[in-house]
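Why do we care about 3D structure at all? Because function follows from shape, and shape follows, mostly, from sequence. That is the central idea of this module. The next example makes it concrete: a single protein chain, its amino acid sequence, and then its structure expressed as tokens.
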Amino acid sequence: MNEEIAKIGRELQAMGKETTMSATSQYRTELKRKYESLLEQKKKFDILKSRYDQLKKLHNTWIASGRLEELKNLAYTPPDLTDPKAMIGYLRQYGAYTGIDKFLFNIKELSIGTTYQIYSLLH
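And the structure:
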């Protein structure tokens, strides 16, 4: 891609030096359009490549630290998250038990719509 961009850039520079304005002006316009399109594609490619490099680095870090194997084990043998106490432990372990989660876990019952009082013994 870089070679093609350089080639078209050189052709555009050479055409810029010409003084004749015949069929070359249409060819020059097409070359400019193609050159700009290639530059735009190269920008997108560079963004994707940098994101790939970032994710590859994260992957290698997880392999080195053993985190990837831990996540694979969690995927194949998921924990029982129906128990709120177990879920709180996992949230704390992964740093997700903050702010609104703490508040929501303190709510024992939430009723929406028409609600009726429930009388129970105080503990």
